[in-house]
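Example record

One chain of 147 residues, shown exactly as stored in the release files.
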Amino acid sequence: MSSGVQGGKAYGLLKSQQEEKLNSVNEAFLTDPKYAEEEDLASKLEMFKKKYMEFDLNDQGEIDMMGLKRMLEKLGLAKTHLELKKMMSEVAGSVSRDTISYHDFLNMMLGKRNAILKLILMFEGMGKEQEQKSAGPPSRKTFSDLP
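Predicted structure tokens for this chain:
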């Protein structure tokens, strides 16, 4: 029996455990009076969960520096270590933390503050929707016009 299959199985298990954990955070947000006014909260949370799971999560199911770096590189946005640190502390709300928990992530996505990571993810999401809508050649937006 090759170890590859074993790894894949463990990975699948990890993923479903992580998803359960994320679902329970989602439930907490659904009952949070702070977000009672939020439109389509359930579907937004579902969308954010999918987005969060696109990152390479660490064993605790959180986004660490490498996970963030890889995600941004996938989007064609290589960042320096310093920029990554800044982005992370902006989301986690403290410089000492070097991971973004799902809770932090949701607070960022639902919050009023425009964290850089939020802008990037929204921008990327909008880009995808636009591509599906327009059959013409996709307009390449650049990130240079982001703050």
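Notes: The two ends are 51 Å apart (CA to CA).
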